[in-house]
Hints:
The chain is of the alpha+beta class. The protein has ten helices and six strands, in the order H-E-H-H-E-E-H-H-E-H-H-E-E-H-H-H. The relative contact order is 0.10.
Amino acid sequence: MLGIEDRELYNAIEALLFVAGDPVSLDRIAEALELPIEELEEFMPKMLDEYNFERRGIKLIKLENSYQLTTRSEYFDAVVRMVTHKQKQVLSPATLEVLSIISYNQPITKAAIERVRGVDSSYSIAKLLERELIEQRGRLNAPGRPVLYGTTDEFLRCFGLQSLDEMPNLEEDLSQLGVETDPDKDNVTFDELEQRMENGGEFEEDSSDPSFF
């Protein structure tokens, strides 16, 4: 087992290799940690032994004079299945459009989304719920008690945002969807959309894109 000082060095090297992803030479590790390369040459075999002893899902390997963290071969099939599944989870233009409407007008109902788009949005909403990019935010106090939708923390993470305040200006985005916005405002609120629906306000519909379905 590694001592306390060795464990600190172990953790530091592990962090460097994790961030790098690719093989890292012993020289680069020594430079990053400001340690003599001779000390690392003595320590790395201990680290290799520690990984092999623990038989974790992550494995430390040596490639000539470089080191890299990889997944252990025993779990290769499971990793391939997960990565392949993840690569297939690409949002269509229609789903991204629905996500944009929700993110700028949350909480918002399915009916309001479809009034903006002019087409059924059930599939896109289902995909966004599946990806955990949106969630149910209760129900609107109106006939039928329709579900309200809003974005999640996963949405912020995927788009590199710390908060919804960092989102781009809404006016330009909604103008591309055929929704007229008030030039004196930075946003179109859910209440305004609902009011326009109640008043029979028309939104420009665009069903020419087959990806909407």
